[in-house]
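Private note to self, pasted from the team thread so I don't lose it. Backbone tokens:
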């Protein structure tokens, strides 16, 4: 059994593998490198077999999405630590060692993420993960280094090691035993916010999620699903409500879900009046899904886990950002 397995989920990403797999194979030390292919049709598999025979391939017979793809692949991987790594991430020398050392230092640490910088503008933090993820009282996620679309420049302000609420699925190191015992990624999500849901469960179970600023990777972001894509809008609004249904206490859910629905409608109307009709329809579609599947989603609530979660922000990031002008993490007083 390997100590560390770096698992890259691929779907028609031959060009990304050509560009970013070299850094992974060069700078991952003794870790086993695995490409799990989600039934690609673009010669990805042939490329890996020919150019990187040392990389293990796991072929998935159909596209199971991010969640299903990883759940399927990781059932076949024996390691103490899994690294979930996006195919559009460039790693750097010594990127793994600090995170593994941190995990080894405390058995209660379940998952770790590195500093995530933008590959395209390397002085900026990257949208998906940045300097570690947090969540507010209504379940809106944000990051150190990124609140909504406001991204900070990296000038060493997050070169630290701190507890966070969620680690990004773009580059997450997680204990294999806990990944499986917590049920892995919830395949209802398909893609987007699934790692926040997993970290929420880990948090509720009393485990720590950490940010390790001693490790840096560069993420393209939006390579598989562009940020402005109405399909992403759909997953964003739908999956945000799924997280609340699964992880809030019934008392909290009774008042927080209606507030989220109301805020969603405000966002939908803004889409409509600003000419983003497809995004408006995506929000409606997301709400329709929740209405149809509410009781099924409610039945997926993890049993036996307390509802108190640490590293949550008690305020509203919407109010702080849009009404109080707090655009940076340091403005929040956390």
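Design output:
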């Amino acid at each position: 059994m390997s100590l560390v397995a770096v698992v890259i989920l691929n779907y028609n990403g031959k060009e990304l593998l050509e560009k970013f797999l070299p850094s992974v194979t060069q700078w991952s030390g003794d870790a086993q490198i695995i490409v799990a292919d989600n039934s690609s049709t673009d010669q990805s598999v042939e490329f890996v077999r020919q150019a990187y025979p040392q990389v293990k391939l796991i072929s998935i017979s159909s596209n199971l999405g991010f969640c299903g793809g990883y759940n399927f692949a990781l059932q076949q991987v024996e390691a103490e630590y899994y690294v979930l790594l996006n195919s559009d991430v460039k790693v750097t020398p010594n990127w793994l060692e600090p995170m593994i050392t941190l995990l080894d230092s405390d058995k209660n640490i379940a998952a770790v993420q590195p500093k995530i910088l933008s590959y395209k503008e390397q002085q900026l933090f990257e949208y998906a993960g940045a300097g570690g993820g947090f969540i507010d009282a209504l379940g809106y996620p944000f990051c150190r280094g990124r609140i909504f679309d406001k991204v900070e420049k990296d000038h060493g302000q997050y070169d630290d090691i701190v507890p966070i609420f969620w680690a990004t699925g773009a580059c997450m190191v997680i204990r294999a035993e806990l990944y499986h015992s917590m049920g892995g990624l919830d395949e209802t999500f398909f893609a987007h916010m699934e790692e926040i849901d997993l970290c929420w469960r880990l948090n509720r179970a009393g485990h720590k999620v950490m940010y390790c600023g001693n490790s840096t990777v560069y993420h393209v972001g939006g390579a598989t699903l562009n940020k402005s894509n109405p399909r992403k809008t759909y997953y964003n609004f739908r999956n945000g409500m799924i997280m609340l249904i699964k992880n809030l206490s019934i008392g909290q859910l009774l008042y927080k879900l209606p507030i989220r629905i109301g805020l969603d409608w405000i966002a939908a109307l803004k889409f409509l009046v600003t000419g983003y009709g497809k995004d408006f329809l995506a929000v409606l579609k997301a709400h329709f899904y929740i209405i149809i599947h509410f009781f099924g989603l409610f039945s997926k609530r993890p049993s036996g886990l307390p509802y108190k979660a640490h590293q949550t922000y008690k305020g509203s990031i919407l109010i702080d950002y849009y009404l109080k002008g707090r655009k940076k993490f340091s403005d929040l007083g956390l």
